[in-house]
Design brief:
With 273 residues, the chain is α+β, with helices and mostly antiparallel strands. It has eight helices and 16 strands. Helix 1 packs antiparallel against helix 3 and helix 2 packs across helix 3.
């Protein structure tokens, strides 16, 4: 079922970020952030010099956090069967961007000092502006080489002032309860197997990831990415873990919706899990 959000200036709902936690950090699929923690211990020869010992421990903790951050990034899903570490092997641009973004990581909050002299820090990076674009370009080029991977052409949108006034500003896929896993380059497919949205559709110059993820439909409607008039479509099942399937009827309605082509080209897509 398709629904429209009629709120022109939606109030920002409490954030329901979709976060994947693991042993050394987390991935925030709503904000496009990767966090990692690191622990450092001062060299024994500096124990008699507390200030110096703390500084050395913080430095060691940052190195450990950056190592864990790179490991976290390597495990980010690009597609159902592709991780960032695979993408880095396939594309020099992806490899370079990964190294660069980790090098420019920022520390979150203040170091935590323990009684035994060890220090814990948290580092974070945002992958949207640097890593996501070369990943999308890599996936797009690969899809171009694969037979039958091109999305079906979208029908020309209605013209006229009325159509422009009613044009949607974003697309929200409600995939709650389907078991979908977030990925940097998801596809939207209909029940006939036709690809409506993929890296091939997105403008290479848009400079970001293909979709944001959220736990709350209300919060998704309020996201700037969705704009003031998003369309909401219910997913019916999952394909290959990371791709969402919608009904053929909803796909046909999407084709007739003013503004859809622009929304997809600009990757103004939010998926609710």
């Amino acid at each position: 079922m398709i629904a429209f959000s009629l709120l022109l200036t939606p109030a920002i709902a409490p954030a329901e970020d979709y976060i994947e936690q693991n042993a050394n950090g987390s991935i925030n699929w709503t904000k496009g952030e990767i966090h990692a923690r690191g622990i450092g211990v001062p060299p024994k020869r500096y124990l008699k010099f507390p200030a110096r010992a703390r500084a050395m421990a913080v430095r060691a903790a940052k190195v450990d956090a950056l190592r864990n951050l790179l490991e976290q990034m390597q495990g980010v899903r690009v597609e159902a069967q592709t991780l960032m570490k695979d993408a880095a092997v396939e594309s020099d641009a992806v490899h370079t961007s990964m190294q660069g973004v980790v090098h420019n990581a920022s520390m979150v909050g203040a170091p935590h000092y323990y009684e035994d002299g060890s220090v814990e820090v948290e580092m974070a990076v945002n992958y949207r502006g640097s890593v996501a674009p070369p990943v999308a370009q890599m996936v797009s080029k690969r899809l171009e080489r694969e037979a039958g991977a091109r999305p079906r052409p979208l029908s020309p949108p209605p013209s006229g002032d009325g159509a422009e006034q009613n044009a949607i500003t974003g697309l929200i896929i409600d995939a709650r309860g389907l078991g979908l896993r977030p990925a940097l380059a998801p596809k939207i497919v209909d029940t006939r197997g036709r690809v409506l949205y993929s890296a091939l559709v997105v403008d290479p110059q848009q400079g970001g990831d293909l979709a944001a993820y959220d736990r709350s439909l209300e919060h998704a409607r309020a996201m700037p990415r969705a704009g003031a008039r998003p369309m909401v479509v219910k997913g019916v099942k999952v394909q290959d873990i990371g791709d969402v399937v919608i009904s053929s009827d909803d796909a046909d309605r999407l084709d007739r919706t003013p503004g859809l082509s622009r929304v997809l080209r600009q990757a103004r897509v939010v998926i609710v899990l």
